[in-house]
Amino acid sequence: MATLHIDVEFGGGMELLFKNVREHKIDMPEGSNLKDLITYIRDNLMTAKQDLFVMNDTVRPGILVLINEADWELCDGIEYKLEDGDRIIFISTLHGG
Amino acid sequence: MSDVDSGPLRAPKPKAGTCIKCKTRPSTVVLRHVQYCKDCFLFATTGKFRSAFGKSAISNTTGHKAMVAFSGGPSSRALLHLMKGFQHVGSHQSGQKRLFDELVICHIDETAAFNGSSTLDMARVVVDTEYPDFTFHGQLIEDIYEDEALSSIDKKEKLRQLFAQAGSLTAKEDLLWHIKMHLLVKAAQKLGCTRLILGDSATRIAIKVISFTAKGRGYSLPLEIGGDIHGLYPNLVILRPLKDMLAKEIAIYDHSQGLLNSLVPATNFSTMAPPTASIDRATEEFIVGLDRDFPSTVSTIVRTASKLKLASSMNGQSRCALCHMPIQSGSKDWKQRITVQSTQCTRDSAPGTLTVPENILCYACQTDLSESEGWSRLADDASPSTQLEEFRSLGYPTLLTQDDMHQRIKDFLLDD
User: Fold this and answer.
1) The complex's ipTM?
2) Model confidence pLDDT, tens digit, residues A64-75
3) Do A64 and B252 lie within an 8 Å CB cutoff?
4) Based on CB atoms within 10 Å of each CB, which residue in B125, B163, B211, B248 is the most buried?
5) Could you give all domains of chain B from N- to C-terminal order, each with its CATH number?
């Protein structure tokens, strides 16, 4: 089965949840959607505080998701079907002032 | 490879339409159900920022030195960048002067309260490299103690003790904010700034409306959320030019301008804290969650709260020693009416715990402090000057000037 190479980036303070590493390269099986990616990140990149990233199988409110520079609300949100080379950015919108 | 891989903007999928403004480019951002392309979004954002200054005739900018509060978080990072564009255009257009005569960027390093590594240098580097026209002013939070006999280590220790005795996380967060506000106001006044610019977003203001109400700060709420506040501090106007921008707009702006790489990491009491850790955190969770499903939540709260007016009873004389907000008189009577102060079947409450020093503290600060050690020392039957002395001896900073204090204790002074 083909593999999808996904670039994942965390910003706005979210990187604190990922040992301060902002950029990650993640391989997902073909046919995966954004929800699968989020679950993968929760289960493989996080050792604690998972609930600050994921809530009810989607990202916590207040986290902005950009799919190839576009608002995920324009791209089917959590159901978006990943494609090879996609760049997914998670940005915390409420951290500090 | 599918066809969406071809252009630079390959993302917009089924639901994406075209931008509502230019009606030609595909949209990449949704705000309150409205779709924009990146260029039109940026144009609208800078326009909104500009009009925040243009709205009020009294917040004119020329002849004024302004201080921008820069924590280094997403909002103040965007604020700094927007101010640069704002100043720049102003200075280059013919016949138009620079907006503010001078801009001072004030960063408060609050890490002493949390054992973190200093943020001062990071903030300084951001300002010095990207905004050389602005003046950087760094301030250590422990310098709230101005006693020169104290070493830096002593001050840090004193500050940590103050926070350690402050009780709940809510009380700690409030105290931290009051201290930061003290330092900003003091720095602004010392450096001759007549404007203090804060980066509160619409989302933050909506959260404040609800949490401040919950904490009993309703009386002074209009002063805490207004975009243009005069008279709260001598010769200093508080401005909140981001008050019509959602946290989401600010995050997209930061990202599109490449500012996310130069945020100053914030470590404080609520960092990584669970959603119910404090009133502020719980409110944030509530508002942001609601806003996801109902995207007009934030703007509805902000617009409704902006109609609030200050009570006519507010005379400006009686200010809280901790938060400097006006004190609503009669909170003691009111508290006694609505709360159970003693019960016959439980053991007697310790004497002194029910006293309310409403002469020097507002209702909300009384509530915060009632959890702290040393509260009972602020007995209500003492004169305000004694209360203030006790208050200071507990390690709390106060912004009150000699005039304020004289006003407060004048009833106890003998005539000359």
Assistant:
1) 0.93
2) 999 999 999 998
3) yes
4) B248
5) 58-279+289-305 (3.40.50.620), 331-341+352-412 (no CATH)
